[in-house]
Design brief:
Elements lengths: L1 H46 L22 E2 L21 E4 L12 E4 L3 E11 L5 E16 L4 E12 L3
Antiparallel strand pairs: 1-4, 2-3, 4-5, 5-6
Length: about 170
């Protein structure tokens, strides 16, 4: 009986760890999607010719993207994430179905994204000789969030390149 009790208690401990890992993986997935969303917004701005190539960089370099970590707002009037007009659109929310399990009904749940911040860094790319490649830029999108279980900050980083050409 004692051996069985020890085995069951150990099994319950493992079950608790698995449940906590599931919660962390959900937050990791949300961070990944938020970074992808920002990258898609940048590429769409380039592909639709909505913005000039010179606009696709950070404010300090003459572009439209805000510096540093920013709260997550919906895309503003320009439809591009991470720009100055996003503030007017309000905080971004996750839309989940309510108790009836159907989207678009009155019981839907809107979860604010106040636990997340995003930073978009767009930098010039240099060739092997140190010359700037004017038609190519490096994009680093960082999404930072706090994990309630262990009370620490985690960061998800997405690195990509964007070319002037479609």
């Amino acid at each position: 009986m004692a051996i069985m009790t020890i085995g069951l208690v150990s099994l319950l401990g493992v079950f608790g760890i698995a449940m906590a890992a599931t919660q962390d993986s959900q937050q990791d997935m949300i961070a990944k999607q938020l970074a992808n969303e920002a990258l898609e917004s940048i590429v769409t701005a380039r592909n639709t010719s909505q913005k000039q190539w010179s606009d696709i960089q950070n404010l300090a370099d003459g572009g439209i993207f805000l510096p540093g970590y920013q709260p997550l707002y919906d895309a503003g009037a320009d439809g591009i994430m991470g720009t100055a007009d996003d503030y007017a659109a309000g905080y971004q929310k996750i839309h989940e179905p309510g108790p009836d399990g159907i989207y678009g009904t009155s019981d839907d749940i809107l979860l604010p994204m106040s636990n997340y911040q995003r930073k978009i860094e767009i930098q010039p790319v240099t060739d092997a000789n140190g010359n700037v490649v004017s038609s190519l830029r490096a994009i680093n999108i960082s999404v930072q969030f706090n994990t309630p279980r262990v009370q620490r900050t985690k960061t998800y980083l997405l690195t990509s390149f964007i070319s002037q050409f479609r």
